[in-house]
Structure formats: C-alpha cells, structure tokens
Design a protein that fits this description.
By secondary structure, the protein is α/β, with parallel strands linked by helices. It contains 9 helices and 7 strands. Helix 5 links the parallel strand 5 and strand 6. The radius of gyration is 18 Å and the shape is globular.
C-alpha cells in the first residue's frame, strides 16, 4: 500500500498518532506536507525530520478559509495521498450539563466529523482526476475502534467517529461508478497511549473502579499499523485495525459488510 504513496498531505500531524505517522512515512522516504493548527509544533516537526518535509498551518474548522488553503496545497504539490488525522476527544456527562457547553459539542463534532467530510469534498475531485490519468490516488481517514462499539464516557467522540466510518463506506460506493481507482482507507485505532485522553484518563479510571482498559503501547501500535499499510494491496485495503479494534472491524465486515455485499454494494 505505501508503495502507492509518494507525496502525502498529512493533516493533524502535530502530536499523537499524526506525528507518529509523519515520522514513519518520513523513514520510508516519502515527501510529507504536514499540516495542523499549531505552527510552533509544525516547525519543530519539520526541523526534527529535515529534508522532504513541508509544513503548512491549517485550521480545519476554519471553514471559510479552508477551500482556498486546500486549493493552494493541491496546486503547489503533486499530492497522491491525503491523510486526514486531526481529532479531539472529550468526556462530558449528559447527566450533568455543567460538564460541557454547546460550543464544546460543536467543536468536537466539527473537528472529528464535519471538517473531514468538508475536506473530502475539496480533495476527492482532484484525486479522481489523478486516478483517471493513471496516477496513484489515496484518501485516508482516522476513525476509531469506538466507531464500531461506542462507550459511554465519550458520547460525542463515538458518534463522530461512527460518522467517519459510515462516510468511508458511502464514499467508496460513490466513487465506484466514476471508474477512478481512488483508494479510501479507514484507520481504526484501538485505545493507544497518546495525549488524546490525557486530561481525563485518571478520572475515567476512577469512574470505572480502577478497571479502565490499558492503552496499547504507542510504538507497538505504530509497528502493527505500518506493517499492514506496507504489505496491503491498495485496491483491497479498506480498514486498518489492530488489537481490540481488529475484532470490532472483523465483526462489522462479517455481518453488515456481508449484508451490503449481498445487495451488490461494494463497501
């Protein structure tokens, strides 16, 4: 799969899994355009990696500025892979309105669901044209194992990530009649040891009586995921999952995925 990736626009590359993927792709010799809100983190990452890295400040929830910035990126670089990784997680209680505001909910949905779909609207026509010209074309979304099995502490996050999974399935269906080989890949991580939930990990463990699940080690996750990306055939690779997420993806593929196939739908 990674052999079809030469120039990667990686959105949400300033920390966590996004930064991890940036470092792994760079090791493979890819040209990276790393994008995110925090210019200081982007500059530090670019300086750390050195050559073959360009950095662009991009706030994916600035919907007014987004079309112009994406258009500039597509005209400046010969991008074959758009990797949409940006995300935030919060843990509010809907039984206690004081734990969140309307703005918190809107921000979490905009970052995790609305922005990735808007970005797809902006980049998919470009990728279709690449594919029709016989060039590689990939779009990658980061969802979550929670997209397949929601958990109460993350009601908004689970809902948004379930939306990303549904969008990937629907996007593949829309692309098929175009005849363009645009690969739609969903990265579905399990619970990984990153800063995503750092602000409420101790509270969650207390709520669960000290029985909160242990996160997968960061490097263990990256190793397993990169092995799948490197060995998988681009046109057949749909979900990339490991650990508990792999179990959930397999269950979906073996049930609802099979139902779609029986309807003649390529999911």
């Amino acid at each position: 799969m990674t052999s079809s990736m030469s120039t990667v626009l990686l959105i949400g590359a300033t920390s966590g899994l996004g930064e991890g993927f940036a470092r792994r792709f760079h090791t493979l010799g890819k040209h990276l355009i790393v994008a995110g809100r925090r210019q200081d983190r982007l500059s530090a990452l670019q300086q750390s990696l050195g050559s073959r890295v360009d950095a662009r400040q991009l706030d994916i929830t600035d919907f007014a500025a987004l079309p112009g910035k994406v258009d500039e990126l597509l005209k400046t670089f010969d991008i074959d892979t758009v990797f949409i990784n940006a995300g935030i997680m919060k843990s509010p209680s809907f039984a206690d309105a004081s734990t969140q505001s309307n703005e918190d909910i809107i921000d979490e949905i905009n970052t995790n669901l609305t922005a990735p779909i808007v970005l797809a609207r902006l980049v998919v026509p470009y990728l279709i044209e690449r594919a029709k010209a016989g060039k590689h074309a990939n779009i990658v979304f980061t969802s979550s194992g929670l997209a397949y099995l929601p958990m109460g502490p993350y009601p908004v996050y689970c809902s948004a990530k379930a939306g990303i999974h549904a969008f990937c399935v629907a996007l593949r269906q829309q692309l098929k009649p175009t005849g363009a080989q645009v690969n739609v890949i969903e990265i579905a991580p399990p619970y990984v040891d990153t800063t995503l939930d750092a602000d409420f990990r101790d509270r969650l463990n207390a709520i669960m009586g000290g029985k909160a699940p242990k996160p997968m080690l960061f490097n263990e996750y990256m190793d397993a995921t990169m092995r799948q990306l490197e060995s998988g055939e681009a046109s057949k690779l749909k979900e990339v999952a490991t650990g508990s997420s792999q179990v959930r993806v397999n269950e979906w593929r073996g049930s609802l995925g099979k139902l779609l196939e029986s309807m003649g739908i390529d999911a």
